[in-house]
């Protein structure tokens, strides 16, 4: 860490319990190594949460010794669902439960509070952007990738030529709610998994903590009677499965095999849709024991059906630095916005 003379952007990652912040120089150096976390106060409502973000902003500048006048733009990410311009869903969301959050323009509010341009992405898109740039470095603006991040839900994003694909309504890259084929993934007597979004058999219904608690564990516990996880409440049991998997527990490996197959089938859809250079997997599995982590990624790859030409150029890797990926991705988005060139002249009818 330490001060710099040139202009910088700040990345702010807003989470359910804490904010994380980073500083990125315009020549692409992060000035913060680890986590700079402070409480996010999201549960206290939008006003308190915007103040908490402003404190995170001031705090990371104080820590890195960068004067406020050197900040050119701010990147912000929050959990979804929110629009591409940072308006929280009018139906509310798990993290933004207070009614005042519904339809709240968190990006605009932070921009007014800080008096600086604020660029917004949801947390999955921000982490996907970081994974892409961290992996490809100098080649990033000429490469494409898809990231699937397994958490409470299944988040992630699609990056094309170094930029997040946001979509017309800001709803691109909702990988969790893409339907996947279930034949050969489910056991013959296993019920079709359902998702909180109302779909049956989408990627999140299998590859998420919610999917484990709601669909996978209830089934696999019937196949392994007397398993210690049967004594735990479902939400807690879902979080404990990974530890069992790391120790080679048979039930846990069945659950994670199904999750890896689901991600492989999702990536097979991506292969035929945007044909990316890289497929990234993120979430808790990144922090797992190396043997388990490598087995999981290899199983995802095994179930991703690529043509020979694609297999020759495609890479499979983990989303690095799970804890800081959101803030770093948000900062990269701010830097991209800063460098953005004017839209090219129309080729037809201009
Ligand atoms: Zn869904």
* Main sheet: strands, sense, barrel: 5 strands, mixed
Task: Give the cofactors and ligands.
Answer: zinc ion
CATH superfamily of the largest domain: ATPase, nucleotide binding domain
CATH architecture designation of the largest domain = 2-Layer Sandwich
Q: Spatial order of the strands in the main sheet?
A: 3-2-1-4-5
> How big is the Rg?
21 Å
Helix amount, in percent? Answer: 25-40%
CATH topology value of the largest domain: Nucleotidyltransferase, domain 5
Overall number of structural domains: 2
Mean pLDDT: 93
Stretches where pLDDT falls below 50 for ≥5 residues?
Answer: none
Class by helix and strand content? alpha/beta
In total, the number of strands is: 10
Reading the helices and strands in chain order gives EEEHEHEHEEEHHHHEHHEH
Compute the number of helices. Answer: 10
C-alpha geometry:
globular
Short précis:
The chain is an alpha/beta fold and 350 residues long.
Question: Could you explain the architecture of this structure?
Answer:
The chain is α/β, with parallel strands linked by helices and 350 residues long. The chain folds into 2 domains: 8-128 and 325-339, ATPase, nucleotide binding domain (Nucleotidyltransferase, domain 5), CATH 3.30.420.40; 139-318, 2-Layer Sandwich (Nucleotidyltransferase, domain 5), CATH 3.30.420.40. The chain is 37% helix and 16% strand. The chain has 10 helices and 10 strands. The protein has helices at residues 46-64, 106-114, 123-136, 203-206, 209-223, 234-246, 250-273, 290-302, 308-311, 325-339; strands at 8-14, 18-25, 37-39, 71-78, 118-122, 145-150, 154-160, 163-164, 278-283, 315-318. A 5-stranded mixed sheet has the order 3-2-1-4-5. A 5-stranded mixed sheet has the order 8-7-6-9-10, sandwiched between helices. Helix 7 crosses helix 8 (290-302). The longest helix is centred in the last third of the chain and has 24 residues, at 250-273. The chain is globular, with a radius of gyration of 21 Å. It starts with 7 loop residues before the first strand and ends in an 11-residue tail after the last helix. The mean pLDDT is 93. Bound molecules: zinc ion.
